[in-house]
Amino acid sequence: MQPKTLALIDDDAEYSEFLTQFLQEQQGIAVSRFDDSNALLAAPDAFSFEFYLVDLMLPGVNGVELIKILRRRTDAGVVVVSGRLGPEVFREVITAGADMYLVKPVQFEQVALAIAAVQRRVAKPSAADAVWKLDRASGELIVPDGTRIQLSEADRQLLECFAQANGEPVTREALLNKLGREVVEGESDDGLSATIYRLRRRIERATPTLVPLQSKSRVGYVFRAPLQLI
């Protein structure tokens, strides 16, 4: 079993190019390359990949910190492929949230096997099936673990949109209209991005449960879990 999409974060251009070619042509995986961790984090779909291959010695945010950030936003598979050695390094990356650690030099076939092994473990439907609830009477979001989160009016409006979408992406225009904000063609939607960011952070501060709210490149946002209105 292989993921459909994968982000490769490594500043070794030659290695990345040949590994990308191998994974795409031999394994059928759509690979997006990033030579800087900050470039990944700035991408609209940064947390939407099904898998991540991460080097540790990166420009921008270092590999360990990048893994911690990924773990706050996605339960996708994460494999580290790095030249750094030592038991303390292994301990550090696994504690940060990586699923497996491979030491360079490594054969591309070994990388593919590691991806498949991790993907079998992480591709479980149970987390995605956990039901979130929006209590409109109390203005609270109820997390599957039972945590109740008080929402702002903007939060409630956005979550109602996602509940009505039944797991489908919601366009930026639809979200802005729901918030009563004017949609101006060609202008930035930084205000919407900030509102979404604050909603994510409010949920993350209240519960360790993975927040299924993700950006959808060139479309808008999607809530990747069942969300019921009660």
Short recap of the structure:
The protein has helices at residues 13-27, 37-42, 63-73, 87-96, 108-122, 125-129, 153-165, 172-178, 190-206; strands at residues 5-9, 30-34, 51-54, 77-82, 100-103, 132-135, 140-142, 148-150, 170-171, 213-216, 220-223, 227-229.
Q: In words, what does this structure look like?
A:
- The modification 4-aspartylphosphate is found at residue 55.
- This is Response regulator transcription factor.
- The chain is 43% helix and 20% strand.
- The protein has helices spanning 13-27, 37-42, 63-73, 87-96, 108-122, 125-129, 153-165, 172-178, 190-206, and strands spanning 5-9, 30-34, 51-54, 77-82, 100-103, 132-135, 140-142, 148-150, 170-171, 213-216, 220-223, 227-229.
- The model has no long low-confidence stretch (mean pLDDT 88).
What keyword list fits this structure?
230 residues; alpha/beta; five-stranded parallel β-sheet; four-stranded mixed β-sheet; 9 helices; 12 strands; 20% strand; elongated
Class from helix and strand fractions:
alpha/beta
Strand segment tally: 12
Strand order of the largest sheet: 2-1-3-4-5
What composes the largest sheet?
5 strands, parallel
The coarse silhouette is elongated
Helical content stands at 40-55%
N- to C-terminal separation?
Answer: 37 Å
Low-confidence stretches: none
Name the assembly state: single chain
